[in-house]
Automatic annotation (TrEMBL):
One of its GO terms (molecular function) is dipeptidase activity. Residues 151-242 form the Peptidase M20 dimerisation domain. This is Peptidase M20 domain-containing protein 2. InterPro entries: Bact_exopeptidase_dim_dom, Peptidase_M20/M20A_hydrolases, Peptidase_M20_dimer, Xaa-Arg_dipeptidase. The lineage of its organism: Eukaryota, Fungi, Dikarya, Ascomycota, Pezizomycotina. Belongs to the peptidase M20A family. It comes from Diatrype stigma. Pfam families: M20_dimer. SUPFAM superfamilies: Bacterial exopeptidase dimerisation domain, Zn-dependent exopeptidases.
Length: 386
């Protein structure tokens, strides 16, 4: 449910100037027709991946299924196992003419897109904008803004002693961890609405009659922006240090993964909105950007956030209903719902709208200029202004 193959699709096209009458819905009719023509071929691909779930960076079935499908389509150049990752792949359709480059990413766990950034994938292909879409149970939205995120491994080191014979000789690492855990629980009372703190005790000792020399936990800290995350981290770290101070243990805090908040590009979102709203059956995303971002805000996190700080990005969301009382993504209910024909049709609609955005970027140099100017204003200096 959480992880899919690390795909990276790139499209390049000649710079052209659209006429004033050539609005997105006019191009969208052709795009919609092409996607509908591919639906019968795409459905088995969808079912093969859905019915064979795989863990992150081990999506070998998905890798083979997707690359085989694209190899069967004329004009695509496929690079399997790209950029040092066995399940990463790159698909490029290049007319050989000068113009912008648009990339489409798939969702992945473990920071796969960050690995692609560091490996130079976006730089090598001179990518101008990046897009992906993600299902959920929230309203359809053109502008999804995700949370900044850090996962931590917290370890406490104490001293063993027999818990009955000489407990005073020990330093209880588990007590230190539990003290910190309780401190975090108290901290939540004073955190802001966009703050999230989650934890798990991953190692609670060896035997109950031993003062524990080692204990460890895994923690996740999220906030609406990277700036707020840094502020919250100072408070959570204080709780971890307090556990050590209270018990005499030593603490080690290791950040194991971090994602930036995703900053959606409103200029791209406006084109997506027009495309989505023009498709059938009727289903509209909000016209107002502020409302769209409000509905599209989530405390989930994605490595597409890091991409949005490197180049203009859009991650629209679309709803898949898991049934009455069903849960959202990363749950059995949602996994079942994602395999239905209704969910597949929603994916096709999102694909049509994103393709519409890509075509507009490829065809309208003024739009691309607006997109890049917005990105420079919002995140080009390294931080979001909202």
């Amino acid at each position: 449910m959480e992880n899919t193959v690390d795909g990276f699709v790139i499209v390049n096209h000649e710079d052209t100037h659209p006429s004033a009458d050539d609005a997105p819905p006019a191009r969208l009719k052709d795009i919609s027709s092409v996607v509908d023509g591919l639906a019968d071929d795409l459905w088995p691909v969808n079912k093969k991946i859905h019915d064979n779930p795989e863990l992150g960076f081990k999506e070998f079935i998905a890798h083979e299924t997707l690359t085989t499908f694209l190899k069967s389509k004329p004009g695509w150049k496929i690079t399997p196992s790209a950029y040092g990752m066995a399940t990463a792949w790159v698909a490029v359709f290049d007319t050989g003419k000068r113009g912008p480059v648009v990339s489409f990413n798939v969702e992945m766990g473990g920071g796969g897109k960050i690995k692609l950034l560091r490996a130079g994938a976006y730089r090598d292909h001179k990518v101008d904008i990046s897009m992906l879409s993600h299902p959920g149970i929230v309203p359809d939205s053109a502008l999804v803004r995700t949370a900044a995120f850090t996962s931590l491994r917290v370890e406490y080191f104490g001293r063993e002693a027999h818990a009955a014979a000489s407990p005073w000789l020990g330093i209880n690492a588990l007590d230190a961890l539990i003290t910190a855990y309780n401190g975090l629980s108290a901290l939540r009372q004073q955190t802001m609405p966009g703050d999230v703190i989650q934890g798990q005790i991953s190692h609670g000792g060896v035997r109950p009659n031993i003062i524990h020399a080692y204990a460890a936990g895994r923690f996740v800290v999220r906030a609406s922006t990277q700036e707020r995350l840094a502020q919250l981290r100072r408070k959570t770290d204080a709780c971890f240090e307090a556990g050590a101070l209270a018990t005499g243990a030593t603490v080690k805090i290791t950040a194991t993964q971090s994602y930036a908040d995703h900053v959606p590009n409103r200029a791209l979102g406006a084109v997506y909105r027009r495309c989505w709203n023009a498709l059938d059956p009727p289903s509209r995303v909000p016209e107002d950007d502020e409302l769209a971002e409000l509905l599209g805000r989530t405390m989930a996190s994605t490595d597409q956030g890091d991409v949005s700080y490197a180049l203009p990005s859009l991650q629209p969301g679309f709803a898949i209903a898991p049934g009455p009382g069903g849960n959202g993504p990363h749950s059995p209910d949602f996994a079942d719902a994602a395999g239905t024909r209704a969910a597949f049709e929603r994916c096709l609609r999102a694909g049509k709208a994103m393709a519409g955005v890509a075509v507009e970027v490829l065809a309208d140099e003024d739009l691309l200029r607006e997109v890049k100017e917005e990105w420079r204003r919002e995140v080009g200096e390294g931080k979001t202004k909202r």
